[in-house]
Amino acid sequence: MPAKKVLVVSGKRKTAVARAVVKPGVGRVRINMTPVEIFEPEIAREKIMEPLLQVGEDIWKQLDMDVKTSGGGYMGQAEAARMAVANALLKWTKSSHVRTVFTEYDRTMIAGDSRRKEPKKFGGPGARAKEQKSYR
């Protein structure tokens, strides 16, 4: 019996983590067991669909993707899922053309965004904000 080809890829954004499991199929893409076509909110759905639209239907309609996300907010999860989907497509196709398409459109699909929250300091409610004072 031949071994089935299955690929597991992860993506991160801030504190959100997404894990994509890719296998041959009919083009089913699910985010946390919800089909991507009915995923809410709409802006997050558009973000997740970007790599699929860039690569073209002929490639991703042959695959089934199950993406599980956790941590962070809904937009961080959406960007982590987008990164996981893009990297899964890259690894599945092994195509340099797909890589150039993704990098020209948006490099954060592959490389990710290294920005993190600045640590809070003493003397105020946040990293830079300080308690106000008045001398007069």
Offer a concise description of the structure.
The protein is of the alpha+beta class and 136 residues long. The protein has helices at residues 42-55, 57-60, 74-93, 96-105, and strands spanning 7-13, 16-24, 29-31, 34-35, 63-70.
CATH architecture term: 2-Layer Sandwich
Biggest β-sheet, characterized? 5 strands, mixed
Tell me the number of strands: 5
Total number of distinct structural domains: 1
Proportion of residues in helical segments: 25-40%
CATH uppermost class = Alpha Beta
Question: What's the rounded overall pLDDT mean?
Answer: 89
- Please indicate the percent range of residues in DSSP E strands (runs of 2 or more): 15-25%
Cα-to-Cα separation, first versus last residue: 84 Å
Number of helices: 4
- Class of secondary structure makeup: alpha+beta
Task: Walk me through this protein's architecture.
With 136 residues, this protein is of the alpha+beta class. The chain has a single domain, classed as 2-Layer Sandwich (Ribosomal Protein S5, domain 2), CATH 3.30.230. It contains 4 helices and 5 strands; from the N terminus they run E-E-E-E-H-H-E-H-H. Helix 1 runs parallel beside helix 3 and helix 3 packs antiparallel against helix 4. It is elongated. The protein starts with 6 loop residues before the first strand and ends in a 31-residue tail after the last helix. The model has no long low-confidence stretch (mean pLDDT 89).
